[in-house]
Automatic annotation (TrEMBL):
It is a multi-pass membrane protein. Belongs to the MIP/aquaporin (TC 1.A.8) family. The chain crosses the membrane at residues 12-31, 38-59, 87-107, 133-152, 172-197, 224-248. It comes from Saccharopolyspora rhizosphaerae. The lineage of its organism: Bacteria, Bacillati, Actinomycetota, Actinomycetes, Pseudonocardiales. This is Aquaporin family protein.
């Protein structure tokens, strides 16, 4: 059985890799002296999807939450004890800060020489294309609801009854399956707010952006920061509550 200390370690490492690679792909397409500049929205979506794959694979011993919304959803369904929730969330936030700092370190020279330093906040955290807090909140709730409901309703696959015929559940593709869902959410629902769908993924890098010595950087936009925290948590809780009412076989 995984101890709380091990849960903390694996969640921290997994979330750090998530934000290192996720923020990294946005830096790659955004910073003017980067080889990936102009790569576009689709590259960002795929980059974040593979970041989830890498982070979740590393955090497998802890259950690979790497997202407080998932932790809350699984606590609602009883798959995680409420006493473990603070450990998961603290590890996820610290790991997200660490990953964002490592992203900055990897692109330090590009940050120093970018032609638009005031626009670098979007590398680290999300923001709405049309600011309207209630509707921005709805967007984040819906996107996270899709993610967490899919995770809860797709438990690991059991061996197929017929030899040679696999049971294609979540475990058949491993964490690559979650990556596909994240990419799909980004392509379908990410346009309005940048699809945080993960409070730690947004808050941790936002904290890092506020404290990092980035020349000419813009505001971390703390006034908006509650939306990508509250929206995903509400979405995760709603997904957990619906899952309790569904005839899901374990």
């Amino acid at each position: 059985m995984t101890s709380l200390g091990e849960v903390f370690l694996w969640e921290l490492l997994g979330t750090a890799i998530l934000t290192l690679m996720g923020c990294g792909v946005v830096a790659n397409v955004s910073l003017s002296k980067s080889l990936g500049v102009g790569g576009g929205w689709l590259l960002v979506n795929f980059g974040w999807g593979f970041a989830v794959f890498a982070g979740a694979s590393i955090a497998e011993p802890s259950g690979a939450h790497i997202n407080p919304a998932i932790t809350f959803g699984l606590a609602i369904t009883g798959d995680v004890s409420w006493g473990q929730v603070p450990v998961y969330i603290l590890a996820q936030i610290i790991g997200a800060v660490l990953g964002a700092v490592l992203c900055w370190a990897a692109y330090k020279l590009q940050f120093d020489t970018t032609e638009a330093p005031a626009d670098t906040r979007g590398i680290f955290c999300t923001g709405p294309t049309v600011p309207n807090a209630p509707w921005n909140l709805v967007t984040e709730i819906i996107g996270t609801f899709v993610l967490v409901l899919w995770i809860i309703t797709n438990p690991p696959a059991s061996p197929g009854d017929t030899p040679g015929v696999p049971d294609f559940g979540n475990a058949a593709l491993g964490y690559a399956a979650v990556a596909f869902i994240v990419i799909g959410i980004g392509n379908s629902l990410g346009g309005p707010t940048g699809y945080a769908i993960n409070p730690a993924r947004d808050l941790g890098p936002r904290i890092a952006y506020a404290i990092l010595p980035i020349r000419g950087k813009g505001s971390p936009e703390w006034g908006y920061s509650w939306v990508p925290i509250a929206g995903p948590i509400i979405g995760g809780v709603l997904a957990g509550l619906l899952a309790l009412a569904l005839p899901i076989s374990s």
